[in-house]
Design brief:
The structure is a homodimer of 222-residue chains.
Chain A lengths: L10 H41 L6 H8 L3 H8 L2 H24 L6 H16 L8 H9 L5 H26 L8 H20 L5 H13 L4
Helix pairs in contact in A: 1-4, 1-6, 2-3, 4-5, 4-7, 5-7, 5-8, 5-9, 6-7, 7-8, 8-9
Chain lengths: 222, 222
């Protein structure tokens, strides 16, 4: 589209434009900073999925991405803030890859199967260099209280709650037999975490076994 | 007991005695070396249960135990050999704490319940500072081929085989319904690994939930 012709600006309008241009420059800088921040955080997720959040360093990420160490340091401030940014970026990527696409399926057993399908693609493809980000990092932080621990385990509870809610839907709709939703969500998650390890070590039956277990949990017993 | 009186030694016997005393000194040195090696390896297990096998360093262990760094370096030679010694020491301590005591119970469902009881004590007490050694270290080494990976995953297979064998005994004796022993062993192990994390973060229901899941797997369905 062509821009409509505009009248010559008044002195007041000129001052306003200048202010708006300054604001524009600041916005662009913020945007650039924010884009770089996202790119660094996303790369940090890959590194941490392989070497753990403790393996992250501002210097290493800067080198990997061809950025200045001081620039990356300015964006994040501290190793802990970098770790928290990685946890946030991992959650965002996980929601995009697993939770959001599965939301096309109706609540209950169908949604659970869609979540399982998406999760298996997420871990098998894999989305992050070292496989499941939480499976890689929860064990390192389970005995280390602090904000990174809290973020990792808050996402874990969120995921368990999502599974339990869908299990309750499935029970309510009579799609699966009566079951303890929290206990079954815990079992599904435990099996997915073990499946992540099995996928990493190249076990060819890993995905099939995960499906068998989840179908066993969802099927009427007997 | 008093030693019997001995005749004065002949020159040949004197030479033999000297040789035997030298051998004794060497034996004592070897023994001291072997004891120190075990003490360092056992401490390495505690450190690695908390900070991972990658967090191990000869210098740190020497400082922790008040030994010289060069002495510890001589005993182990390399970081990888130290990691392998830790994996070996962890296996030995696990067998002593979980597998051997459970062997008092008859094969089958009783042995499985005894293994579960012992495992829960092992992880809850816990035997190692940071809880289950394998749960802490498998995720770090699942994408890192090499001797440490091989040792960790060989012990894992050994444990899964033990569980599957007892499940087959239980099925054979009619104590549990027909089931896929390998699949069920995988599920039990997945739940124990998740239980280890739950114990680390202070979840008060962790042990109870593990029992519920294992009893569910062993009980006739319906």
């Amino acid at each position: 589209m062509n821009e409509p012709e505009r009248p010559a600006p008044s002195p007041t309008a000129q001052a306003e434009n200048a202010a708006s241009e300054n604001a524009g420059t600041t916005d662009r800088r913020l945007l650039r900073g924010s884009r770089t921040r996202r790119a660094v955080a996303r790369h940090a997720v890959d590194v941490a999925s392989l070497d753990g959040l403790n393996g992250l360093s501002i210097g290493r990420l800067a080198t990997d991405l061809g950025l200045s160490k001081s620039g990356v340091a300015t964006l994040f401030g501290s190793k802990e803030k970098l770790q928290l940014a990685a946890v946030g970026a991992a959650r965002e990527a996980f929601v995009d890859a697993v939770v959001r696409p599965a939301a096309d399926a109706p609540h209950g057993a169908d949604r659970l199967r869609a979540l399982l399908d998406r999760w298996l693609v997420y871990a098998s493809a894999p989305l992050f260099t070292g496989g499941c980000f939480w499976a890689a990092n929860r064990p390192d932080f389970d005995s280390r209280p602090g904000p990174v621990h809290d973020a990792l385990f808050s996402h874990h509870r969120e995921w368990l709650t999502l599974l339990a809610d869908e299990l309750r839907h499935a029970v309510g709709a009579g799609e699966v037999p009566a079951l303890d939703a929290e206990l079954t969500a815990f079992q599904i998650d435990a099996v997915l975490t073990a499946t992540n390890t099995a996928l990493r070590v190249g076990d060819p039956d890993a995905a099939h076994r995960a499906r068998l277990v989840v179908e066993g949990l969802l099927s009427p017993r007997g």
